[in-house]
Amino acid sequence: MNDLLDKKITVIILSAVLAIMLWLYVITEQNPVINKDLSLPIRLINTDTLLVNDLVLLDDEPFNVSIRLRGNKNYLDSMNRTTVSAFVDLKEIRSKGLVELPIDITGIPLGVDIFWVSSNRLSLNIDNIISEMLLVTLKITGSTLNGTAAMTPFTNPSEIMVKGAESIIETINKAEVSIDITNLDKTVSQKAEVVLSDEQNNTIEGLDINPKQVDVVVPIENTKSVAVEADYRVVPADGYVLTGVEINPKTVNIVGKKEVLDSITKITTQRIEFLDVKNSVEQKTFLILPEGVEIVNKNGGIAFSASVEKLIEKEIETNRVGVKNLSENFELEMIPIYLKAIIKGTESIVNSWDIDNAFYIDLLDLEEGTYNMPILFTKPEHLEVHELNPSEIRITLKKPE
């Protein structure tokens, strides 16, 4: 009886061992332990926390994490990007800056281990959300038809609101709209989209613009060329004189409605006044424009200059007296003389007068004989000659022997 019981126990033990061996065989051969790599997108949760705290995430690229799993093949075969997920919770973020948050991975069943992960934490760049009002600038390209020009354009509204990351808004150089007026001859009125750009003229995106479009009006009217008249008063100091006045440009092109332009023949400058002047003076001035009239070239004003010079008196001497209209039928005998005179005028004219070629006698229509001829001279308009001595010269005309 005992032998039979022992045999039964032995059979049971052998059966169990055989079952275990069979199970191990199935596990190791039919369902082995393997590795599997997955690349998972990182999902950000509780992002509304950022908005509540007026914060924004600067990183706009998708985040990913790579993992390596180890487990039985039948488990790993059913695992993919839809069953396993990675996320980062933003609920604790309260201020701007570079933050590192843990990456949580879910969907890993029992019996499967995470053998390796590319990173356990995710770095995020957080910035403040701010709003700022910006003036809209208008860029006009092209040229209107001949005889017309664009007047001062305007936008409605003239300012827009931008909202977004503080660091991005700080890079804005201008908020601009563009209008092409090539070959137009009538006023332009249309909507245009606002474009933000930095100092390098690179377009800035990722900000909220309100409004995104503005109404643009570019008045286009007729043009006319008119003279510029300077309204000035220049009073030289004692012993000085005003020698000249210049304005530049002398004419300008104006733009406006035809009925207004027809009544305009000149445009006057703003009042210019210099008192007790001893040197040449210059001043930038502007034109007084009638209502509804503009200058076509708005970039520059009018350059006014007045030349003022000192009056001087100078004694001159020369022994050269020229002869004009000497007949070929006569010979001239002339006693050499030494001329002296006092000249008065502006310093530049006095010092530049060529006295050696200024004095002469005129023998026109003279016959043979002896004469006391007055000494004549040529001089600049604003030069005075006084105390010429001698004032005449004795000559003799005779026929050749």
Structural account:
- This protein is mainly β and 401 residues long.
- The chain folds into five domains: 1-28; 33-119, Beta Complex (RNA Polymerase Alpha Subunit, Chain A, domain 2), CATH 2.170.120.30; 129-218, RNA Polymerase Alpha Subunit, Chain A, domain 2 (Beta Complex); 223-310, YbbR-like domain (RNA Polymerase Alpha Subunit, Chain A, domain 2, Beta Complex), CATH 2.170.120.40; 319-398, RNA Polymerase Alpha Subunit, Chain A, domain 2 (Beta Complex), CATH 2.170.120.30.
- 13% of the residues lie in helices and 51% in strands.
- The strands form eight sheets. Strands 2, 5, 8, 11, 12, 14 and 15 form a seven-stranded mixed β-sheet that branches. Strands 6-4-1-3-7 form a five-stranded mixed β-sheet. Strands 9, 17, 20, 21 and 24 form a five-stranded mixed β-sheet that branches.
